[in-house]
Amino acid sequence: MPRAHNFGAGPAVLPLEVVEECKKHLADLEGSGLGLMETSHRSETFQSVIDEATSRLRDLLNIPQDYSVLLLQGGASLQFHMVPLNLLTKGEQADVIVTGKWSQNTLIEMNKIRRGNSIWDGAEGGFNRIPSPAEYKASGDSVYVHYTSNNTIYGTQFKQAPDSDGRPLVVDASSDICGVPLDVSAHDVIYAGAQKNLGPSGVTVCILSPWAIAKANQNLPSMLDYKTQKEKGSMFNTPNTYGIFVLREVLRWIDNNGGVEAAHKRNKDKAEMIYSAIDSSSFWTPHAEQGSRSIMNATFRIADESLLGRFIAEAEELGLKGLRGHRIVGGIRASMYNGLELGSVERLVEFMRDFENRHS
Ligand SMILES: Cc1ncc(COP(=O)(O)O)c(C=O)c1O
Question: How far is the CA of 78 from the centre of ligand 1 (A)?
Answer without folding.
Answer: 10
